[in-house]
Amino acid sequence: MALRNWFSLPVVRADDEEDLVDPQAALREKCQAKGHIESLYNKYQECNDRVNGRSKTTETCMEELFDYVAELDHCVAHSLFSKLK
């Protein structure tokens, strides 16, 4: 029995009283309101609408998506780690 307790995995439980909120989601919402990130999102949406409006196209919106996500993550990274416990 002692050997079994030695190999058991730790169990992590959240406090029931505390509502857990993902700080990354809150920071992403805050960063999306910034002008340059909002304009990158609008460029991505315009490209997405254009591609979805065509029946045969080889165009993808990967470049616009990567630009938007990279800038959003860069904005979030400035303050995310200071909010983690």
Biggest beta sheet attributes: none
Strand content is under 5%
Poorly predicted segments: none
Rounded Rg: 21 Å
Put simply, the count of helices is 4
Helical content, roughly? 55-70%
Return the string of H and E elements: HHHH
Head-to-tail CA distance between termini: 35 Å
Number of strands: 0
* Average pLDDT metric: 83
Which outline best applies? elongated
SSE class: mainly alpha
Please outline what is shown here:
The chain is mostly helical and 85 residues long. 65% of the residues lie in helices and 0% in strands. The chain has four helices and no strands.
Describe this structure in words.
This protein is mostly helical. The model has no long low-confidence stretch (mean pLDDT 83). It is built from 4 helices and no strands. It is elongated and about 55 Å long.
Considering the chains and any ligands shown, give keywords for the structure.
0% strand, 85 residues, 4 helices, mainly alpha, elongated
Write the layout of secondary structure elements.
Elements: H1 2-6, H2 23-32, H3 35-52, H4 62-83
Helix pairs in contact: 2-4, 3-4
